Amino acid sequence: MNGLFTQLCRRLYSDYLMPSRLREYEALLAKAAQAGYRQMSVRAFHRAVRQGGVPERVLVHRHDIDSDLRTARKLFELEVKHGVGASYYFRLSTLDYGFMRAIEAAGSEASYHYEEVATFAKRHRLRRSDDVRARFPEIRELFVRNFSRIREGFGLPMTTVASHGDFANRRLQVINHELLRDPALRRRCGIECESYDIELLRHFDLYISDRPYPVYYTPLSPFEALGRNQRICLLTHPVQWETNWLENTRCNMLRLAEELAWRT
Asked: Which CATH class is domain 36-263?
């Protein structure tokens, strides 16, 4: 009971009381530049790998825009101020074509944060991994439709994508990334790389992800990693850097409704 209460208090603090951490993010950008790190997008790093021109020190910024476009724009403004490249991956629920075009115009990358496996499973109330994988042909077609619609609205190519992690994926033990193991699907969509591809990740010597209070980062802080590790990928989510009461409440209520609907 005490553990559940502690978890609830931490969630309330993270979602509604946590002070903005944007100054910390700006300090990280400045410190990485001072330490000689080239800061770039997933797409730029992937192409540098293919061409054999990866910088000696590199920090790849990947932002998964699960929610909170307001804070995503603030992160982007800081990166523009410091001349930093990054990748922004948008869900269907966070698409903003104007913002995406501004990201590309600044030399960064905007693309798709896909979740068709989880969406399909919840929509059809599939609760077994075998049942989900048996429907992969249909789910791939759903992915192609969504991807094509986004690309048409965006008006620019999207050559890397990133899998979103949903509570349904964790329960089913089926990740969205499994869809992109199909080379034919990648060719149809013109996808060069998925952000979780082993062939991409093996070129990093450290992969860091942000986390909610009180952990903030795993496996360690990027401030500690600078100077110790040469090729770092940093995954961040806007919700971990600034509270947004309305957006966090909306997301929490949606998650609750989806879980209740999936169980019934």
From this structure: alpha beta
